[in-house]
Amino acid sequence: MALKCDPDHRIHVCSLAALETVVAKTKATHxxxxxxxxxxxxxxxxxxxxxxxxxxxxxxxxxQPGLVEPTCNHIEExxxxxxxxxxxxxxxxxxxxxxxxxxxxxxxxxxxxxxKTDERVIAAQLRAASATATxxxxxxxxxxKHMQRSGxxxxxxxxxxxxxxxxxxxxxxxxxxxx
Length: 179
Known about the structure:
Blueprint: E1 9-15, H1 19-26, E2 30-35, E3 52-56, H2 72-84, E4 91-95, H3 101-113, H4 119-129, H5 137-146, H6 152-160, E5 172-175
Parallel strand pairs: 1-4, 2-3, 2-4
Antiparallel strand pairs: 1-5
């Protein structure tokens, strides 16, 4: 696994399989697990339990029997967690494959951290960092509404389109300050 780690990049996105390695390589202090309820990992070594947000959701965009859809409460938890993070340290955001829920959470985090930056610029940074990133559209839509972005977040993700189809994405990193 080749993790391109730039010291100015503080948000790292990966799959569950790469979680421990990425946390160790980046010296992360915070982790977001946006993953199926039955796949939530233990807090990685070196991470304080209060610095591990566990969002138990399935990768769905519409309600499905027996599955947990992302809700406003999940997005509020994510935004609160991002708001308490010291952006001078590294954060790892992961899901099962490192493609959909994790890239949505990273996009949402960047939109929150860069409130005055055009959402299309943030989405373009996401696409440049990962050819496979396909942010979960429900998570993005909920965040767009909660953050009062008037559909701009949803449109930005639509503009970059679906990423390349793969079973698992390669780890990637994003600058937490978008220029």
